[in-house]
Amino acid sequence: MANLLDQLAAMTVVVADTGDIDAIRQFTPRDATTNPSLILAAAQIGTYQELIDRSLRESREVMGANASADAVVHEALDEICVTFGKEILKIVPGRVSTEVDARLSFDTDATIAKARKLIGLYNQAGIGNDRVLIKIASTWEGIRAAERLEKEGIHCNLTLLFGFAQAVACAEAGVTLISPFVGRILDWYKKSTGRDHYPGPEDPGVISVTQIFNYFKTYGYKTEVMGASFRNIDEIIELAGCDLLTISPALLDQLRSSDGELERRLNAFDPAPTQDQIHLDEPAFRQMLAADPMASEKLDEGIRGFCKAIETLEEQLTHRLAALEGGAALTHAAHEIFQLNDLDGDGCITREEWLGSDAVFAALDTDNDGRVAADDVRGGLGAPLAMAARG
Ligand code: G3P
User: Fold this and answer.
1) What is the CATH number of the domain that holds 189?
2) Rounded distance between C-alpha atoms, residue 18 and residue 387, angstroms
3) Is residue 186 part of a domain?
4) Sign, Cα dihedral of 363, 367, 371, 375
5) Domain that holds residue 378
6) How many Å is the Cα radius of gyration of the chain?
7) Ligand 1: residues whose CB is within 6 Å?
8) Secondary structure of residue 322 in the 3-state scheme
9) Among this protein's residues, is 308 annotated catalytic?
10) Which entry of 86, 90, 117, 135 is annotated as an active-site residue?
């Protein structure tokens, strides 16, 4: 019998939830999803440093030599998200989800502008809109932005979705896909009830996705349902048959090494009985969300968490940019000094050629052979020049 992952893939689109490109390669997901926390985590992996550096250099070029470090880093955030997305698209045959800056979650126009910019970066690389989902937090403002973006052919994945009101508003807005966060719903219930175990069928995150799925299918909404944020494979097993499930590499691995028969739990062609259809305008949406403390708290907390991830990444990028540009300035300065002193152009400076003081020459001539090579100049001047570049 096939393992659980293969059985799942036969009834649900399996999506990899990670920014770790190598991890995606180990599985064969159709799509992949990223978010600010996942990009931040991937940015810590040494093998992706070159992607980060490339994005920083490109951003410097786009912003110009006189742009401030803050402006370059701000630009680089978009570049990095899209760079990871482009790399991921070399592996997955389907779509990648790239998230709009969470700090724009309550600003419809700014979200639209950012989404257009991100999709523009993909388009410049020859990647069509059909291969990208722009991820937007499921606030009222985010949902309105998605509604407009969908009308211009930019497909959206509405994330940080915890409550039924958010799901209904997304479906009514015609968004392509929603990501209800199963595990974070469970986290909230565990914390608020003190109960430390919920078997799969009783898991409140599973119950929430099941309700949304059956409602969408019953009333013919086209919005795809992609369960996300899983804490264990039981949650995934209980949602077999969902349109899509986005799963971390660790849980994909567990599914791949687990046997047993996987039963379909959700069926788009035969949805379980559901509630009466509702329609939500802004006041009704806000009222329903406010009446659901889990959804409102988790939405706010999720936005705060993604903002924090972005700010942390920004800080890291600021340091890296300084190192890159400080390093380039240092190489340039060392080169100039070397050229100036290598009077006969033989590739090394002798004590006679050196125009500076004996003490500096002695410090650069670390092997005391009376000759200083270009690398000695760069190495010897590294510390003071790097300090000057930082200061
Ligand atoms: O796709 C959503 C997911 O990445 C969030 O997962 O584990 O942070 O709740 P988690």
Assistant:
1) 3.20.20.70
2) 37
3) yes
4) negative
5) 342-390
6) 27
7) 17, 33, 35, 38, 179, 181, 183-184, 228-229, 246
8) helix
9) no
10) 135
